[in-house]
Amino acid sequence: MNQSKDNERHLILGIETSCDETAAAVVENGMIILSNVIASQIDLHAEYGGVVPEIASREHVKSILPVIDRALSDAEVSLDYLTAIAVTYGPGLVGALLVGVSAAKGLAAATGLPLIPVNHLEGHIAASYLTDQTLAPPFLCLIVSGGHASLVEVLNYTCYRTLARTRDDAPGEAFDKIARSIGLGYPGGPLIERASEGGRSDAFYLPVTHFPDSYDFSFSGVKTAAINAYRKIEREAAREGRSWPSSCSEADFAATFQSAIVKALVKHTEAAINDTGYKTLVLGGGVSANRKLREEMQEMTAPLGVRLIVPPPVYCTDNAAMIASAGYFAWRDGRRASLDLNAVPMAELDDIIGQPVEKGGLYR
Ligand code: KG4
Ligand code: ZN
């Protein structure tokens, strides 16, 4: 590949190891994906019904260098062509994050390239720049994943204000827990989505939690109510001598649970849109791969004249292209980390390490 290191073409290597995907990608100018390599550990964690942190760290150690090599070779570039190395430093599992952070620091030390710290959630936001190259801040973003439900004002490419978060469980966590409880397996979101096909979405009552004067979410109530409903359904099924009773099929159960989660996400997002007046809504995070959520968000936004941008499912779930994209904008805005960068398991989107004060950073 014939390339020059000019001001027009900036290639960022992104590295992501916050949970159970070891990922590396090369992205040009924050928008054009040259490579996107993901080594998933899902099969290893599936037998435990969720991510086992120890196993995740060990697998990241095994995969990280081959995954980075592959990202560079798929992009047909060597380290010499890169402008910077971007890495997820949090939030996530500390032992998992440390593998990516250490690899990125090693590469930065060896090459002298700038090291760009990226918050995992801003990666999920940046996935939309890869999806729609006309997208530019400001806009409202709903990030829904295994660890988060956050409504975020994206003020500019590197500055965020969180309007709402979950006060307990994340929606992906609720999907995973319910899928495990009814014997579907892991990860629960896609399995519940598949199981819900053809089901009734009002087979039984589930509460949707709202807080006064807040867009915050809560999913522990709906999760517990769904588990209790399932216990009753199991008893009924046993009386009828079948695995699901005549009153509620597996599809009905899955559709009803999925619908309750989607309803809460859509309602709170609609309230935030009405109050803030944003005309663009972006979705990100693994749960935004959900078809029902995508459809209902489309139905909510269309009459309001709000543009909805949702990445294709492969860029909703964890990947490194989104980290490289966020890393490009952060690099352009002067964000840097030193080689003592550490993993921050509870990293906050509104306070990113190394962000210059004039670009919204709080301390530096
Ligand atoms: O963003 P992600 O890959 O990792 C985190 O940052 O957490 O999200 C993973 C979560 C899992 O809980 C998974 O069950 C959920 O996203 N998920 C889905 C779907 N695909 C993945 N939830 C609902 N419907 C889906 N199609
Ligand atoms: Zn994620």
Give the arrangement of secondary structure elements:
Layout: E1 11-16, E2 21-28, E3 32-40, H1 42-46, H2 53-74, E4 84-90, H3 94-111, E5 115-119, H4 120-131, E6 139-144, E7 149-156, E8 159-164, H5 171-181, H6 188-195, H7 220-240, H8 250-276, E9 280-284, H9 291-301, E10 307-309, H10 313-316, H11 321-332
CATH first level of the largest domain: Alpha Beta
| Number of helical segments with 4 or more residues | 11
Give the biggest sheet.
Answer: 5 strands, mixed
Distance between the termini: 39 Å
The name of the CATH topology of the largest domain is: Nucleotidyltransferase, domain 5
Strand order of the largest sheet: 3-2-1-4-5
- Report the principal-axis shape: globular
Count of spatially separate domains: 2
What is the CATH H-level superfamily of the largest domain? Answer: ATPase, nucleotide binding domain
Residue stretches low in confidence (pLDDT < 50, at least 5 long) are 1-6
Q: Roughly how many Å is the radius of gyration? A: 21 Å
Commentary on this structure:
There is one protein chain. The chain has 364 residues and is α/β, with parallel strands linked by helices. The protein folds into two domains: 11-132 and 316-359, Nucleotidyltransferase, domain 5, CATH 3.30.420; 139-312, 2-Layer Sandwich (Nucleotidyltransferase, domain 5). The protein has eleven helices and ten strands. The protein has a five-stranded mixed sheet with strand order 3-2-1-4-5, with helices on both faces. Strands 8-7-6-9-10 form a five-stranded mixed sheet, with helices on both faces. Zinc ion (ZN) binds at residues 120, 124, 145, 285-286, 318.
